[in-house]
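Collaborator request, handled under Task 6.
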Amino acid sequence: MEVLWAREDAGVEAATARDVSRALAGDRDLAHTTVMTVLDRLAKKGFLERERDGRAWRYQPVASREGYVAELMLGALNETGDRDAALAHFVRSVSSDEIDVIREALAGLTGKEPPA
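Structure tokens returned to the collaborator:
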């Protein structure tokens, strides 16, 4: 996923399994078939879209890195018996800069100016 997100961030379109294998070659010693299998499974689980390009498939993420992390956070909230308590604990644990980001996001949703 990181390789595909990095390509997307760089403005590069979808990648083949060979593209991903080459990008990972410096970090890990993975067989090309392993990369193909993982990409296929990610596509079947809905994390990647794929389209045929000749004999190969081209893959691209369905969601941005941020969107994916937000889904993970929502999933974690669903695992707790008390979402309100989990949210309150989370908010108490973030930095003041992150609180400003949260305030701006909430202001954008409600149409109200964030407090100064």
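The cover message to the collaborator said: "The mean pLDDT is 91. The two ends are 38 Å apart (CA to CA). Please let us know whether this matches your experimental observations."
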